[in-house]
Amino acid sequence: MNAPTEPILDIRGLRTVFRTRGGEITAVNGIDLTVGAGETVALVGESGSGKSVTSLSVMRLLTRNIGSIAAGSIHFRSKDGRSRDLAVLDEQQMRQIRGDDIGMVFQEPMSSLNPVFTIGDQISEPLRVHRNAARKSAMEAAITLLEQVGIPDARRRAGQYPHELSGGMRQRATIAMALACDPTLLIADEPTTALDVTIQAQILDLLLKLQRERGMGVLFVTHNLGVVAEIAHRVAVMYAGRIVEQGPVAEVFRNPRHPYTLGLLASMPKLGEATRLKQDGQKLAAIPGVVPSLANMPGGCAFSPRCRFAIGACQAGVPMLESVDAVHQSRCIRWQEVGQ
Amino acid sequence: MLIALSMLIFLLLRLTPGDPIDAYIDPNIPMSPAQLTELRSQLGLDRPLPVQYLAWLREALSGNLGRSIQRMDQPVLSLVLSRIGPTVLLMGTALAIAIVAGITTGVISAVRRNSPADLSFSVLALVGISSPAFLSALVGLYVFAVRLNWAPSGGMLTPGAAFSVSDLLHHLVLPAALLSIAQAALVMRYMRASMLEVLNQDYVRTARAKGVAEFWVIAKHALRNALLPVVTLIGSTIGLAIGGAIFIESVFNWPGMGLLLVSAVETRDYPVIMGATLIIGGCVIVVNLLTDITYAVIDPRIKVG
After folding, report:
1. Contact (CB<8Å) A177/B206
2. What is the DSSP letter of A182?
3. Quick check: ipTM above 0.90?
4. Contact (CB, 8 A) for B226 and B191
5. What phi and psi values does residue A113 have, to the nearest 5 degrees?
6. Is A240 left (phi over 0), alpha (psi -120 to 50) or beta?
7. Cβ proximity of B65 and B271 under 8 Å
8. Residues β-bridged to residue A76
9. What are the structural domains of chain B?
10. Which domains can be identified in chain A, with CATH numbers?
11. How close, in Å, is residue B238 to chain A by CA atoms?
C-alpha cells in the first residue's frame, strides 16, 4: 500500500443539487476527494448520504433536468495524460471518457444488463464505440475479458442472454464490460450489495486481483464497512452530503475521530457478539435517530442531533475538516475527545 | 375457434328479422305463396337450423362456401378471395403508416417529455383515439377529396384508365391514412408510456456509462425493450382495424372485404356473410400467431414452443 503519486481523480468543492417540486436540494455539499493511480478509495455512508450521487457526478450521469453539478471541479487525468475538469466538459467529450477512461460497475447486476442483447454483445460494445473495433474482433476481445473475470466456458456464455446467467456471473460480466477499454479509473457503486455473501467475497477478490493487475484507481462506493476493510487503501466517510472523516483505512478503523465513524464501527457486530449480548440482556450498538432529510437539514453539524458528544458549540456552524495528522481528517470540533 | 365463430354468426344471422327470400326474388315479378315455399325448399331454407348449419359446415370443410344468393353465378370462396387483395393492401398500408408514425412520435414524446412536441403529439393522439372511423372518414373525405381536391374521393383505380401504380397509390393514400389514425394514436400512446418506463431502467444508464451516444442509447438499448408491449398492442388492434376498414371501404367505395360484407348484409346474402366472416376470423387468428412469433423473436426471454 504505497502512497500514491499524483492523483488521477481530484474532486474539489463538489456540490451537486437536485431540483424538486419542493425546491432545490443539496445532495452533495462541498466534497474534496482524490483517488491516486492504483489506489482504492472507499466512499462509505448510509443511504442518502450522497455517496452514489458523488459517483454519478463524476460520470456526469445525473438525471437530466433534475440533478446537476452546482459548484466545484472534478479534475481527471485520462489515458493520454491530459487532465481535464469533468464538471465542465461538454456531452461529446464526456462520452469519450465514459467507458473508455472511466469504467463503472453498478449495484444491481440483474437490471443493469440489457435483457435483449447477448452478454458478448454488451461487453464488446465499449470496444466498438471507443476503438471502432469490428464486430468480430470485439467479440473475441469480449470472450477474453469474460475469461479474465473468471467465467468458465466464456465462448458459450458470450452468446447467452443476461437471464441465462446467475447473479454472480452477471456481476462478473458487468465488471468485464467496465474493463473492456482498460480504464484508468473504475467506479464501483455498491457492486456486491445485491449478491449472496459467498459471491460477494468472490467478486471482491476479483476486483482486488484486477486492480493489482491493471493498476487502476478504484472509487468504491459502499455502505458495508467490512468490505472497506478488505479492499480499500483509504476511506472517506460521508454523512448528509459531506465527508465527515477520511484517512487510510487502518488508521480510521483503529483510531476513529468522528462520532459517526465511531458509531458505524460499533454497530458492526463481531462474530458471536450478538448471541453474547442477547444472553447478557443487552442490545446491539446502534446510532440513535435517523439520517436527516436533505430538504430539512439541521443547522450546524448535521450529525449533532444524533451525537452523544454534541455540545452547544456544535450548532454554531458546520465544522471544518480538521487534520488529525497528515493523512487523517475529521469534521468534528471535539475530535480530540472522540479519540479517547 | 373458427367453427365456434361460424356457429355464432350462423345463429345471429338467422335471429335477425327479415327473410332472405325477399331479397332474392325480383319484386317486379309477383310470386304466389306456393311458389315462394317451393323456392325456399329448393334453397334449403325450410330445413331446421342445425341441419342447415351442418350442411353448410360439411361443404365448408371441403372448401365449398356455397354460392352467393344475390349473385348465383359466383361461388362465395372466389368472391371473397377476390376481395382479400384490396383489403390487405389498404390495411397493410394503414398499418405501416400507423407503426411508423406511432412509434416515431411516441419515442420523440418520451425522450422530449413535456416539451411542446410531446404536448402536441399527445393532444393529436387523444383526438385520434376519440374520433370514430365513420366520422374521420367522412370529414377526411370532405376536407381532402372534396374541398382540397388532393385525392380522388373513391375507388381503387381510375375507371377506364390503364393500370398504373401511381394511380393506385393516389387512390390508396387518403383511405389508408384515415384508417391508420386510430391505430397510430394508440401505438403512440403505448410507445410513449413504454419508452418512459424503459428510459428509467438501469441498463439504459449502463449504456450511457459505456459511452454509447445518446441516439443509440435510445434507438438500440431503449427502443428494443420498449417495443415489446407495443408489438402485442399492434397485434391486438388489427382485429379492431378491420371494423374501421369496413367503414372506410364503404365511404371510399374501396372494392374490398368490407364493402362486400356491407352489401351482403344489406341484401341478406347469408352465404357471403358467412364466408367473409370466416375468412376475416381466420386472418385475425393468423395475425395473432404472427404477433406471438414476432414477440419471441425480439424478446430472448421467450422461447418459441
Report:
1. yes
2. -
3. no
4. yes
5. -105, 140
6. left
7. yes
8. A9, A84
9. 2-61 (no CATH), 80-298 (1.10.3720.10)
10. 1-101+184-297 (3.40.50.300), 111-180 (no CATH)
11. 26
